[in-house]
Design a protein that fits this description.
Layout lengths: L1 H8 L3 H8 L3 H13 L2 H32 L3 H42 L1
């Protein structure tokens, strides 16, 4: 399961690149260093986020199916496309916020263990 371990570790890659500006090789190492002590908590946050997104997808699909009955033709396709864009934008913001939160918690954890 080294792939799963690294996948969870690399969830904080974007904030590491944006805030710490290390070299490309150090980005990968820094992600593992940050998440290693909090790996199970990071995995739990990922699972919770995936479940939340799936619940939202199901609710979104239910709303679109109701709209499909009420609106027909090109009007429904336009509404569905607009809703889809809005949904993916919200999901992107949610996942970016998750990555930032995980980076913040991991950085705090590493700095606290280094100062102790």
């Amino acid at each position: 399961m080294p792939g799963l371990f690294l996948f969870v570790c690399y969830l904080v890659m974007l904030p590491v690149v944006l805030f710490e500006h290390p070299s490309p090789g150090m980005v990968l190492v820094r992600c593992v260093i940050l998440v290693r002590q909090q790996w199970w908590k990071t995995l739990a946050a990922l699972v919770i986020a995936i479940v939340a997104v799936l619940v939202c997808v199901l609710a979104f699909a239910a709303i679109l199916s109701i709209l499909a009955v009420l609106i027909t033709g090109a009007a429904f396709q336009a509404v569905a496309a607009a809703c889809l864009v809005a949904f993916f934008a919200a999901a992107g913001v949610f996942l970016s916020a998750l990555a930032l939160t995980l980076h913040s918690a991991a950085s705090h954890s590493v700095s606290a263990s280094n100062s102790a």
